[in-house]
Amino acid sequence: MKTRGSFGSKLFDAVNIGLMIVLIVVMTYPLIYVFSASISDNAMVMSGQVVLWPRSVTLVAYERLLSNPDVWISYWNTIRYTAVHTLLTLIVTSAMAYPLAKKWLPGRKTILLMAAFTLLFSGGMIPTFLIVQNLGLLNTIWAIVLPSLVSTWHLFIMRTFFEALPEELEDAATIDGCSSLQVLIRIVLPLSLPVLVSIGLFTAVNQWNSFFDALIYLNERSMYPLQIMVRNIIIASSNVQGEGNTAYIETLKYAMITIATVPILCVYPFVQKYFVQGAMIGGIKG
Amino acid sequence: MKRSMLKKHKALYLLMLPGILYYIIFKYVPMYGVIIAFQNFSIGRGIMGSKFVGLKHFVDFFVNTPDAWKLIRNTVMLNLYDLLFRFPAPIVLALLFHEIRSKRFKRFVQSVSYMPHFLSTVVIAGIMVTFLSQQTGIVNHMLSWLGFERILFLGKPEWFRTIYISSEIWQTVGWGTILYLAAIAGVDPTLYEAAKIDGANRFQQMRHVTLVGMVPVMIVLFVLTLGHFMETGFQKIILLYNSMTYETADVLNTFVYRRGILSADFSFATAVGLFQAAIGFILVVTANRVVKKYSDTSLW
């Protein structure tokens, strides 16, 4: 759009930039405050003397958290749930999407319909819970990984991506004696890296952030993921060791939020591109 | 013939096997499991051995549960508020983003606004709980500096919907603009030229060209939102509500969670869940039909 230079147009720009600055403040202030509060003196935080910047900097809340074995265990749990979930999801989804991209495969339509049907209908919370319980998965990593293993949207996105790949390459490989599995691993997947990375990141961030499956399927402390720890410390307000110690009762909460969020915020600048890409593919198909 | 087909493509079918098993075990078996809504299900007897009781649990809910009406009202209200306030927010923001002249500033604001999307529900609820705390939260400190009374935000039913919807907007507004911006990018630039020649100022261009270009995406997202109409955000509600705010915060899904998972009242909870899913299904089908009739965009 060319600059018209009229007064109205300039006013429009000024108001817009003003609104955007408000937006930036609203989006970042809570996170800055959380971080400042987490390294400030507890009394200062409780009495409202910390507004933006930290006051009387101290790391006592972090020391407290990091000396708690439960925090480390939950961190490790989240890492392994995320890693296993992402890896299995990519394997199972791509293995299922690849044959579905073959338009000539008998039975393809039926299977696609079977998957699409689940977008409209589901058994709901309780019947799913009963299956997980019946299979004896409660309190295992599989209760977290298996019930949400394949996302139908992701399956369709991947299938669409595979369909667009040139068939000649695969034919050539088949003539050279590659099996279907070899074609998938050696030809198709390397060409599909963008979509694999997008879907892998979506799955990983979702799993890192999820808490509800853990809430209903896990009740052993040693299995809790990070998000459940955060919930217990802040929302259910059960203190980790030392009920009501005034040196860190409030700042502990802010430190816990920070610890749970930092990994996501660290990778965020690098993965944002893939996410936007993924959201677009999903959106266009959806 | 069929057997030879299977043999020929055996490898391909084998590749699909784990995925198909997933769908059967975790999607279709639970769908079959919905029949426990019509039984007096007990874990010991299983689905096969439990007695059928017809619509007993539905009657129990509608006639004998004093909270039934409240739950339905809260579910509908919270979702209406969601449609009314959260749904339009990214549309407005996308329009504003589009009008930013500096490319670098635009990219920066976008990145900042996407960020909350990546925070977990627990973290966002945690931020709300700590910020809104009556004695120690920063929001109440600010209120008291300005001379207002401190408010027990999370203990007052009249505040719950506001708190819930604002946190939803904060989290989703930026990310929600992505699809709208893609739609705007697809608008034919000559339309702007034509509008300018017709003497449209920037505000008029925004209304008659940009906004109109976003309509198909709006329709699709609207129908999709209606598809989740009955289940919106109950994970966040579980984190934010408490018995003091049940009056406005308790929805069908949170009730299903408490009765089904916490009290192990499986059949009754499944019946309530089924009622909720049925309403949701009717809504999305109706919305899609209406949309199809009045425009050329629809979900299916």
From TrEMBL, chain A:
Per the record, membrane topology reads:
Multi-pass membrane protein
Under InterPro entries, the record lists: MetI-like, MetI-like_sf
Name of this protein: Sugar ABC transporter permease
**Does the UniProt entry include the keyword Transferase?**
no
> Which residues span the membrane?
12-35, 79-100, 112-135, 141-162, 183-205, 254-271
Q: Which family does it belong to?
A: Belongs to the binding-protein-dependent transport system permease family.
What are the entry keywords?
A: Cell membrane, Membrane, Transmembrane, Transmembrane helix, Transport
Q: Which PROSITE patterns match?
A: ABC_TM1 (PS50928)
Top-rank taxon, per record:
Bacteria
Source organism per entry reads: Gordoniibacillus kamchatkensis
Domain called ABC transmembrane type-1: residue spans: 75-265
- Compartment(s): Cell membrane
TrEMBL record, chain B:
Which Pfam families would you find in this protein's record?
BPD_transp_1
Going by the UniProt record, its keywords in alphabetical order are: Membrane, Transmembrane, Transmembrane helix, Transport
Q: Does the keyword Transport apply?
A: yes
Domain ABC transmembrane type-1: residue ranges: 72-287
Chief site of localization? membrane
| Species the sequence originates in | Gordoniibacillus kamchatkensis
| Chain segments annotated as transmembrane | 12-38, 83-100, 112-133, 169-187, 208-230, 266-285
The text of the family note is: Belongs to the binding-protein-dependent transport system permease family.
Enumerate the SUPFAM superfamilies for this protein: MetI-like (SSF161098)
Q: How does it sit in the membrane?
A: Multi-pass membrane protein
Q: Any keyword Membrane? A: yes
Tell me the InterPro entries matching this sequence. Answer: MetI-like, MetI-like_sf
Q: Where is the signal peptide?
A: none
Q: What is this protein called?
A: Sugar ABC transporter permease
Location relative to the cell: Cell membrane; Membrane
